[in-house]
Amino acid sequence: MARFNRKNIENADNDRPVVYTLKRGGEPIYVGIAKRGRVQERLTEHLGEIPATEFSTRSYDTIDEARKAEEAKIKREKPEYNDQHNNG
Question: How many domains does the structure of the chain reveal?
């Protein structure tokens, strides 16, 4: 886990698809996915939009694996900023 700021985002793994979790006070508030080569860009897009204080990433070999993991994590953790996924 790292502080959610530009410097730490620049150090995020950008070489494989990832599922990322934005947290505030240790609680997940948003779970997202990013394709290989777009990880840092996606995280930067959330700066200032989602009031996270920290983030973590988990890399996968394929985008399909990452999509499945993202869906399961959202279903399990029900982050408040993923409302569109919590209604099903």
Answer: 1
